[in-house]
Amino acid sequence: MTSLVELRVLEGPNLYFPRAAIKLTLDVEGLSGTSVERATRFAGRIGLATARPGEPGSGFRQRFVLRAVARLVRAVAQESGTRRLAVRVRPSHEPSRVVVAYPWLHRERAQALAHAVAGVLDAVSLGADLEQAVESAAASVRDSEAGPGPATITPRIPVVAVTGTNGKTTTSRMIAHIARTDGRVTGWSSTDGIYIDGELVEPGDYSGPSGAGRVLAHDRVEFAVTETARGGILLKGIGLTRNDVSVVTNVSADHLGLHGIDTVDQLAEVKGVVPRITRKDGWAVLNGDDPRVFAMRTTLRAKPWVFSRDPDSPAIREVLSHGGRATTVIDGWLTVLTPKGDPDPLVELTDVPMTLAGLSHFNVENALAAASAALGAGIGRDQVVEGLRTFRPDPEHNPGRMNFFSLGDLTLVLDLAHNEAGLEALLEIMEGVRRPGARILLGLGAVGDRTDDLIERLGEIGGMGSDVVAIGHKQHYLRGRTTDELDGLLRSGLERVGMSEVETYDTELESLQALVRQARPGDVIGLMCHAERQECYDWIAAEGGTPDSPETLAEKVSSAQASEVVGE
User: Fold this and answer.
1) What is the pLDDT of residues 252-308, one digit of tens each?
2) Buried b or exposed e, range 19-28, using 16+ CB within 10 angstroms
3) Within 13 A of 40's CA, how many CA atoms are on the CB side?
4) How many whole angstroms separate alpha carbon 226 and alpha carbon 162?
5) Which residues contact 280 (CB under 8 A, 6 or more apart)?
6) How far apart are CA 418 and CA 519, in angstroms?
7) Is the pLDDT reported for residue 387 higher than 90?
8) Taking Cα atoms as reference points, which of 272, 412, 429, 451 lies closest to residue 355?
9) Are 547 and 395 in contact (CB under 8 A)?
């Protein structure tokens, strides 16, 4: 048997420490279930002479276990020659397991400590001699090779790090576009790949530490934008020692139930690692309308810069009163606020194509965040304005995010929309371009690594916001589920809102094709497109469809709004 469930080497800042750390998941069932007498002897051996372990399996024993495991790590480290060691211990969603983390300077010795601690817990479970177990554990660490140090990179150029549940890809793309508008050779790592000066050089998901490293390894890069996802922080740590500007777009339910993150509060704690390592003289750009994001200001070394669509937001008042900055919307203008200066109106929302003439609330927030980050990184005001004006919601500038097309008399919208907030945002903009009498048709789908409740909720949202729904599966993103399983969950949500006449298709493209076949002139078709973006682009082009220009989009929004006024 072994008490060591998992050992992870985190190469950089992480959920537990602002530097490289070892993360262990340990099975503590033996210590939890052993007798009070043996638990007391164990406590005495590791330096907890006055501890009261509580009865086996009790809540008091659980508290004792957390304290004892932390002390055990320190005791073995000290007896092997390490004088001081910071240790964090947390319970997991399984009562018999705990998570332990401690910083490391030498890889092999740090991993040897992990195995040594697990060996002592094994001895507790097996009834072995505790004194000898601890002595042997310390000796094994002392005799181990030191090994190399962390590979964490200290940046040589300005770095903007973007995280959040929704909007991080669009926001990071906007920031990279603004930097290129300023004439800087810009590197960008994301879920789509590595981009150098606008060119995709390595496709794939590079939202983890390797992406940041690859961008900074390019000698030509003068400015870096890193999209930082939850998974990379949890599984590998952040690849950089610091960033110059950080952005947190929002935090909502997504990817829950994975890697020990079961609640939105826990997810927010993970995202909060990014602004926590922003340099002291840098800026942490936070969503002032998201309470969990705004609360991150209490963990900062950097200066806070909040964004909000509400100029009278309490978050703006608080941050300005403490010397920070804010970006908001005043009289339809994207505007920067400083503590003692007049408001600085940068650009009208109608001149920012990504906002869809102000229709897309999510993209208004993304534009606010991108402008704040670019200004905070030292890009000039005029270049920021020009970048906002020239970044478009099309396959060239923002592939897969709110891409509008005209196909005859139909409007098509392709968007990732991979969670509740994303789908609500997609339906919001579809409604905003729908003329009276026209319908909303939705290609609905879900990736497999979401909870049952979230997948059912996608069905509910899609059914409530659409006139016609077709399910299109994402074959490359089933992630352990079957299409029948996903189909059943989506249909369960749809049926709860009264929609039962729904066809299912094996692919996203097939669902899009089916919706186009049954569409009427003026209808708006949206597709939650994750797996077959390029295939959908190619099919639309082959059918004579064209990406909407900012002028065409503005005209569609204006026509829909004018029709609403006439209807009233």
Assistant:
1) 755 555 555 668 888 889 899 999 999 999 999 999 999 999 999 999 999 999 999
2) bbbbbbbbbb
3) 7
4) 6
5) 301, 302
6) 24
7) yes
8) 429
9) yes
